[in-house]
Amino acid sequence: MAGSESKQENQGLQEHRVFAPPAEFVASATISGMDAYNALCAEAEADYEGFWARLAREHLDWHKPFTQTLDESQAPFYKWFADGLLNVSYNCLDRNVLNGNAEKTAIIFEADDGQVTRANYRELLERTSKFANGLKARGIKKGDRVIIYMSMSIEGVAAMQACARIGATHSVVFGGFSAKSLQERIIDAGAVAVITADEQLRGGKHLPLKSIVDEALALGGCESVANVIVYKRTGGNIAFNEGRDVWLHDLVDGQSAECEPEWVDAEHPLFILYTSGSTGTPKGVQHASGGFLLWAALTMKWTFDIKPSDVFWCTADIGWVTGHSYIAYGPLAVGATEVVFEGVPTYPNAGRFWDTIAKHKVNIFYTAPTAIRSLIKAADVDPTVHPKNYDLSSLRLLGTVGEPINPEAWMWYYNNVGGARCPVVDTFWQTETGGHMITPLPGATPMVPGSCTLPLPGIMTAIVDEAGHDVPNGQGGILVVKRPWPSMIRTIWNNPERFKAGYFPDELGGRMYLAGDGAIRNKETGYFTITGRIDDVLNVSGHRMGTMEIESALVANPMVAEAAVVGRPDETTGESICAFVVLKQARPTGEDAKRIALELRNWVAKEIGPIAKPKEIRFGDNLPKTRSGKIMRRLLRVLAKGETITQDISTLENPAILEQLKDSN
Ligand code: WT7
């Protein structure tokens, strides 16, 4: 386990501003006041299983009720509600239709060009059912894995729901990943089908999807894929492989609008979502149907305080976990109306978010700190896109996710977007946790900018040292969760050993979930502040990436002998990627260095995806190494920041190299 060296400023630790939740909000909140919060926490403490069983019965519809709540016999492979039967799509769609919400708008689709289309619950159920029947007609069945490589669309959500309906396990791959990344995920998942679109529209540009699928499949090893289903988004020119490829409109044409849901047990894998770790290739985080859905629904009610009349908007992409929990499943499971957005925050201008909030009278808005920071900058440059120019009076609650939010960005968001009237929920969680873990409750928790405050009821977070002992408040340490919870990761697909070693390490006793983040609790309030990853995982614009992955991509280039990648703090993107590279040829300088750096950046985009492009590449004759040959990354982190090295370098074999690596090309 790596030491808890913090990569972030300890944001919020010196923060003394406190914002009480507004009285009118508290009055109508689902969890109203700290007494209500404390009562729920006490209930979980007193009878942990009873607490979760009650919630699972109240918030989900079961085809067959479960009799056992938590099965720890195979720990850390925990099972929740294991003998209960349910269907996720039934819970998201049918039950709303049956509850009198058939005509209620489920999705308001805001296209890149501003065109709006809507689907109510009845229509979404019909479209999902036809889609599901179409999948079945192509021989896709319960337990099969289906890759979804698609743009933001009603069809993307319907694709996920259709898989859930027939018990197929989906794995959504973000549309920005390369053919090679897509191929790796197809192979690891053993997918039988890929659902995609001809192209996606982002910021007025047509970006390819189907041709990347073709490329991925041509890279080999994907023989399991017998079906490629293509949603016609733009009508762009694409190749068609008759027999294998089918248009979505042809697939659903003539299918019945009714599809009996496949009742699956609660542990049935709902999805696999690949994410980066500190070592090796991306890991397929596997989530279970019952526990995941319970937490997606419950956090919509607790954290977002969702009410029947609310319009909810989460700006994430379905390619990330946020888009799973808070676009594809959570909002639908609670019968909400949500905005699904195809575009980018800066098109046609950087007022797009504010304009869209006004246009659809959004009440609850959930986005990433990196987006907020870039929109602050944009409003400085062009005052016409400042939020004050838009009618944002519909907003009643704001949220952030993905990375720490610096107090100044928090204040700007609170004052300028929320009009100093809307609580801000800074939600800490991870792909592996399935939903929020540590977050303010908008009608209860006094907020402190830069702190995610307190764990949700039933979430037993703690901060420990490297031996797993609790540390006192005010002392930093390793963030862990001491008890299993329903929406937790079940395993890493194809790699239970990596799951066990990575998340339940023996050093911590084998029963504590290791989040991979450092954290500290405030001495007085006990509030948590996340201090950053303690492993070699980077967070660039809220996108998670392993340094090893990027290094492997770099050394795969025939020019490269060796590479080391580190993160460095970045005002807009949180962290940015800085790569130190040794070429097989002599160290390039001047124009040569610039040209090769550009070539390598594009190479990484091709290998992994544009999000993994290093912001900077520096060349050296060697990398700083210990006498035993270990690369000293902590020194590289200092150099990347442009700071002088004051640390001990006595174990360094080649001190002269530092001079070479200290400047940009
Ligand atoms: C990592 C998880 C959660 C969905 C999107 C990202 C960082 C996430 C916060 C927050 C500080 C945060 C952590 C975490 N993170 N939210 N509110 N404050 N850090 O999911 O890609 O699995 O990344 O994002 O470092 O471990 P992910």
UniProtKB/TrEMBL annotation:
Residues 99-485 form the AMP-dependent synthetase/ligase domain. Residues 549-630 form the AMP-binding enzyme C-terminal domain. Mg(2+) binds at V555, V560. GO terms for molecular function: acetate-CoA ligase activity; AMP binding; ATP binding; metal ion binding. The keyword Lipid metabolism does not apply. InterPro entries: Ac_CoA_lig, ACAS_N, AMP-bd_C, AMP-bd_C_sf, AMP-binding_CS, AMP-dep_synth/lig_dom, ANL_N_sf. Pfam families: ACAS_N, AMP-binding, AMP-binding_C. Keywords: Acetylation, ATP-binding, Ligase, Magnesium, Metal-binding, Nucleotide-binding. Residues 37-92 form the Acetyl-coenzyme A synthetase N-terminal domain. GO terms for cellular component: cytosol. One of its GO terms (biological process) is acetyl-CoA biosynthetic process from acetate. CoA binds at R202, G203, G204, K205, T322, S541. The modification N6-acetyllysine is found at K630. ATP binds at G402, E403, P404, D426, T427, F428, W429, Q430, T431, D517, R533, R544. The keyword Ligase applies. Its EC number is 6.2.1.1. It catalyses: acetate + ATP + CoA = acetyl-CoA + AMP + diphosphate. Acetylated. Deacetylation by the SIR2-homolog deacetylase activates the enzyme. Its cofactor is Mg(2+). Belongs to the ATP-dependent AMP-binding enzyme family. Catalyzes the conversion of acetate into acetyl-CoA (AcCoA), an essential intermediate at the junction of anabolic and catabolic pathways. AcsA undergoes a two-step reaction. In the first half reaction, AcsA combines acetate with ATP to form acetyl-adenylate (AcAMP) intermediate. In the second half reaction, it can then transfer the acetyl group from AcAMP to the sulfhydryl group of CoA, forming the product AcCoA. This is Acetyl-coenzyme A synthetase. The lineage of its organism: Bacteria, Pseudomonadati, Pseudomonadota, Betaproteobacteria, Burkholderiales.
